[in-house]
């Protein structure tokens, strides 16, 4: 998505749309941690006004994705591994609650939809499509939170997912990580389909903790290089 202006009304994109575009640039490593975010460049790429671009940057700063310094402007923020560890542990606690609620309260149709998303993710293993896998994974987790109706947890988890570590998006789903995530999802889905609240909570907590363990090992490997 190099230029969202072409797909938006002539009046230009709203600040949330510009914020989404910046997130996408970071997620796909077009913007990297520590890189300055030049307003003029963002305006040219998105077609947004200076006011809307600044508003988008302020929004991302509030989420912890961007850092704004006086007289230096905005830059992509890099979270430490210590912070990432805290974020993942918080996610594990919150998402496990939602998984249990989903197992108890979701309708058969909603459970079937969740399973369908998981099956699409499994097809990404054969296709070797990490970006599509990541997108579907986010959709899968978001659905569990949305169906439970806990908007507070959903909002908190969205923010917890935002800070970007120097471990880039593409590198997270490499090697055996996609297969490991699929295996975790199968365990979560099995508990959900059986209406096993405690089992779903336990499996979701372990799934998020497994992601943290992988990030920690990848971080160590990168620092040895």
Give a verbal description of the structure.
- There is one protein chain.
- The protein has two domains: about 5-75, Arc Repressor Mutant, subunit A (Orthogonal Bundle), CATH 1.10.10; about 80-225, Four Helix Bundle (Hemerythrin (Met), subunit A) (Up-down Bundle), CATH 1.20.120.
- It contains ten helices and three strands.
- It has helices spanning about 15-25, 40-45, 50-65, 80-105, 110-125, 130-150, 150-160, 170, 175-195, 195-225; strands at about 35, 65-70, 75.
Strand and helix map with partners:
Elements: H1 15-27, E1 36-37, H2 39-46, H3 50-63, E2 66-69, E3 73-76, H4 81-105, H5 108-127, H6 130-148, H7 151-160, H8 169-172, H9 177-193, H10 197-224
Antiparallel strand pairs: 1-3, 2-3
Quickly describe the structure.
The protein is mainly α and about 220 residues long.
DSSP helix count? 10
CATH superfamily of the largest domain: GntR ligand-binding domain-like
Number of strands: 3
Strand content: under 5%
Helix content: over 70%
Structural class: mainly alpha
- Biggest sheet strand order reads 1-3-2
Name of the CATH class of the largest domain: Mainly Alpha
Q: Can you give the mean pLDDT?
A: 85
Distance between the termini: 31 Å
Q: What is the architecture of the largest domain at the second tier of CATH?
A: Up-down Bundle
Q: Supply Rg.
A: 19 Å
**Apparent shape:** globular
Examine the coordinates and then state which fold CATH places here, giving the name of the CATH topology of the largest domain. Answer: Four Helix Bundle (Hemerythrin (Met), subunit A)
Largest sheet: 3 strands, antiparallel
Low-confidence stretches: 165-169
Order of helices and strands: HEHHEEHHHHHHH
Number of domains: 2
Domain HTH gntR-type: 12-79
Organism: Novosphingobium mathurense
InterPro entries: GntR_C, TF_FadR/GntR_C, Tscrpt_reg_HTH_GntR, WH-like_DNA-bd_sf, WH_DNA-bd_sf
Pfam family, one: GntR
């Amino acid at each position: 998505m190099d230029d969202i202006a072409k797909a938006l009304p002539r009046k230009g994109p709203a600040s949330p749309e510009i914020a989404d575009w910046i997130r996408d640039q970071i997620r796909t490593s077009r913007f990297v941690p520590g890189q300055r975010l030049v307003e003029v460049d963002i305006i040219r790429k998105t077609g947004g006004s200076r006011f809307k671009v600044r508003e988008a940057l302020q929004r991302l700063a509030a989420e912890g994705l961007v850092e704004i310094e006086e007289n230096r402007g905005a830059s992509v923020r890099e979270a430490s591994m210590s912070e990432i560890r805290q974020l993942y542990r918080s996610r594990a606690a919150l998402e496990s609650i939602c998984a249990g609620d989903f197992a108890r309260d979701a309708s058969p149709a909603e459970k079937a939809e969740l399973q369908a998303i998981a099956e699409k993710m499994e097809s990404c293993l054969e296709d070797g499509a990490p970006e599509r896998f990541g997108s579907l994974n986010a959709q899968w987790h978001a659905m569990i939170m949305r169906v439970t109706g806990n908007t507070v947890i959903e909002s908190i988890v969205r923010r917890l997912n935002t800070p970007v570590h120097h471990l880039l998006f593409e590198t997270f789903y490499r090697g055996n990580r996609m297969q490991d995530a699929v295996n975790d999802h199968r365990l979560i889905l099995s508990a959900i389909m059986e209406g096993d609240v405690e089992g779903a909570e336990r499996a979701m907590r372990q799934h998020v903790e497994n992601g943290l363990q992988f990030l920690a090992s990848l971080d160590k490997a990168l620092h040895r290089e």
